[in-house]
Amino acid sequence: MPVVHVVSFKYKDSVSPEQRRGLYDDFNTFRTACLYSDGQPYILDFKSSTHNTSPENAGKGFHHIFISTFPSQEHVQYYLEHDPVHLAFVVRQLPSTH
After folding, report:
1. Of 44, 49, 86, 85, which is closest to residue 68 (Cα–Cα)?
2. Which of 31, 48, 54, 75 could form a disulfide with 59 if both were Cys (CB 3.0 to 4.6 A apart)?
3. Cβ-count burial 33-42 (b if 16+ within 10 Å, e if not)
4. Environment class of residue 83 by beta-carbon count within 10 Å: exposed (0-12), middle (13-18) or buried (19+)?
């Protein structure tokens, strides 16, 4: 059964629009750049947006939203704990977000 993984970023005020766009663009490469242990892409679907609009105020001030679909929970675990593309991105992204 596919598993959906949702990530929202709220950037620090010190992060410029260019830096935000760079991180957004980097994250948007994951569908093809992230490879499973067998060397094949494993993210089934990927959606993102720079517009967080919620008339109900559910957006909570987040700037970017990313929704990834994986084949299984095991694939999500690999992504979070072992995928070198994702782990390198986390190191670059963490200082920029709350």
Report:
1. 44
2. 54
3. bbebeeeeeb
4. buried
Residue matched to tokens 């494993």 = 42
Cα 68 to Cα 16, 28, 65, 95: the distances in Å are 25, 10, 10, 22
**Residue in the structure block whose two tokens are 């704990």:** 81
CA distances from 49 to 38, 77, 83 (A): 30, 24, 23
The two tokens of residue 27 are 């994250």
Identify the H or E element spanning 87: helix 84-93
- pLDDT for residue 98: 83
Q: What is the CA radius of gyration of the chain?
A: 14
Question: Taking residues 76-82, what's their average pLDDT?
Answer: 98
User: What are 93's two structure tokens?
Assistant: 């992204």
CA distance 58 to 73: 26
Number of helices (H), then strands (E), belonging to the chain: the values are 4, 3
